[in-house]
Amino acid sequence: MTKLVELAAFYRDNAIAMMCGPEVMLRFAALTLQARGVWSDRVYLAMERNMHGASGSAVTASSVRSSCAAMGPVLRYDEVEQWWRVPEL
């Protein structure tokens, strides 16, 4: 995925990215978009895994679950970037 992002033709001033998939792919694709000049608040990520809560198979921090519950499963990269620095997530 990140190779495709590196090769994609787009105007960074007009670009809005909407992505879904495994979180590791989302993370590196978002970093690649940032390196190409796309602002973090113009990159949207589907974070459905974090919506499962206590009954789901995913183990997540309560702040992530509550944010997803309040805002829905699609979040801007600048909103989740800090979470990806926490090893437990």
Description of the molecule:
This protein is α+β, with helices and mostly antiparallel strands. It is built from four helices and three strands, in the order H-E-H-E-H-E-H. The chain has helices at 2-7, 23-35, 62-71, 77-80, and strands at residues 17-19, 43-46, 74-76. 17% of the residues are buried.
What layout of secondary structure does this protein have?
Layout: H1 2-7, E1 17-19, H2 23-35, E2 43-46, H3 62-71, E3 74-76, H4 77-80
Parallel strand pairs: 1-2
Antiparallel strand pairs: 2-3
Structure at a glance:
The protein is of the alpha+beta class and 89 residues long. It has one domain (2-85). The chain has helices at 2-7, 23-35, 62-71, 77-80, and strands at 17-19, 43-46, 74-76.
Overview features:
alpha+beta; 89 residues; 3 strands; three-stranded mixed beta sheet; globular
Helix content: 25-40%
Average pLDDT for all residues: 77
The helix-and-strand class reads: alpha+beta
**How large, in whole angstroms, is the Cα Rg?**
13 Å
Q: Count up the domains.
A: 1
Strand content: 5-15%
Give the overall silhouette: globular
Number of helices: 4
Main β-sheet description: 3 strands, mixed
End-to-end gap: 21 Å
The helix/strand series, from N terminus to C terminus, equals HEHEHEH
Question: How do the strands line up in the largest sheet?
Answer: 1-2-3
Care to count the β-strands?
3
Poorly predicted runs of 5 or more residues = 50-60
